[in-house]
Design brief:
The protein is built from 16 helices and 27 strands. The protein folds into three domains: 47 residues, no CATH class; 378 residues, Glycosidases (TIM Barrel); 114 residues, Immunoglobulin-like (Sandwich). The longest helix has 23 residues. The protein has 607 residues and is of the alpha/beta class.
Length: 607
Amino acid sequence: MEKKKILAGILTCMISLTTISSQIKANDIPYNQLQINTQDLKTVYNTLFDKGLTKQDASIVSKEESKSIPVALTRLDNDKIAYTVDGKPFYPIAVETGWWDTRIDNNGYKGAQKDVGDDFKKITDEEWNRYFSDMSSMGFNTVQLMIHWRDWEPENDKFDFTFLNHVTDLADKNGLKTEFIVFFHSQTNYIPLSMDKFWGYDLDNQTINGKKYSLSMQWGEGLTSSQDFRDHLNKTGVHGGKENFLEYWHPVVFKEMEEALTKLAENFKNSDKVIGYQIGNEEGFNYYTNNGNDDNPYYKELEKLWLQENPNGNINEFRADTINNLWKHFSNTIHKVDPYKPTTTNTQGGEMEKSGIQYGSRSNDGMTIGVYENVDMIGSMFYGGASSIYTNLDNHYVKKANNNIQKYAKSFPILFPTEISATMNDGSVAKQISAQTIARGGQGFGLYCYGELYNNFEPNETKFPQPVLGTIKTLVKTVKDVEDLVYAGVPVNKDNTSNVAMEIISNTSNNQGNATLSLLEKDKGNYLGVLHFWGNANSNNNDGNANKKRTIEVGLTAKESGNYNIKLHKTNGNVEEKNINISKENEKQTFTLETTGLDVTYIEVRK
């Protein structure tokens, strides 16, 4: 009798769900026959939309406290937040692994309709050591390791950290710290078929008229199970970006994700080998399918609950609130266990930044610029349209802070992009975007990805390097040469500097990209100028206009008289040295440098 009452309530609730995608007719999915647990969904809703839900930032400790904490964000004397590992300064210069190289077996991918192997490659220690030692030899000190939920929970409620413990040990032995890039979803192309069988997709299955409905997955275009997504690919031969996304707000999925993140954080809480967590990789709403309109009844009921409390709201606001609150909650989940290691995330294709979307506008995956306020670090992606992404981030995070660009360096969310293209436009994106990150007092940067630095990585491994590999090695070496200034430097200008200020006096090629000179201050005697051409971020080395030589005249003003040593560290590998004398207070002296619109010059100034 009680079951009949519950079922009647479910059916009544389901009949009331009327938000149907315009691409699917209402009768294509038998909503009135699908059973959902509305009571438990209401509990999830109350958790996510609790007015008291606030972001729990990673703890910031003093330099003295950091000596007893494996990995911490530490407040330096100049108020900057920076990494320490075992109490020592650490500036992450990272390279990301990819699914397509170090995680796929020797078959490699063979096209959209083909399998790429039975499972993830069982990489031998010899191979891992070769990859990690190679990364280290390039100058990187951190590997951003792509992992999937099943790597530590291969079966539901059966946790096994053997693989993750071992691979982080191997990375550490090769001089690399690890930041986890966690996947909760999978794609349908270039991924082993076994990923379709991930247990998370089958936490709540119902079959009606012979068709499977996996309620723990997001749906769209009549695709309601991982097999449907695979069959669609096999039938059309077109991937179209369709991916297997979890229904994060499904009560069981929600609970399981909480537990998985808790266990992951518990396992590495006392480890100095893991420096942080990217919670999800391009997660959110699967905007490739149905324009992001999820047809799963749990989504529709969640939307209904939200509209009851926000009768004047719209679907875009609901989607943004849902994703932002989910990631806020998951970040808090990690910090309940480990309050020190920071969290980050990224968005599908860097979509919102490239499109110029600001807070109050939404991208198709339901995210806004403000998503980063729900984690500790800005971990944006930088590919096409890279020249505009920082403009969009600044419009929100800098203008919001009364034009104080030091906000990135001194308060959350701090700046650590995890996916700057290493190969796009022959490395010019990597050079220009890393420079913009450093100029804003960023606490690290990561390049994507290791395998793409080689031709046909999987069959040939590291035998055939791409020409851009030399560019990346030189870039990393250039940054490491001034690492102490990058690590501790905070942005200053002529109005707030303790001593030194710099400016561009003249640029012989002023019409070929925007020359920018930013200044970081470590302390009163140590400065770093970052001279770059952000307008050429998407230009390649064959672009004669962007790559033309330029002569830049720089003015240096100092409040204190004395001798100043200047070293010009260029991303083409050259280093030049100059000495100037400031004979009286606030005197200006000038010097010139030669560069191109694709290169960055790091100007080291020491009194």
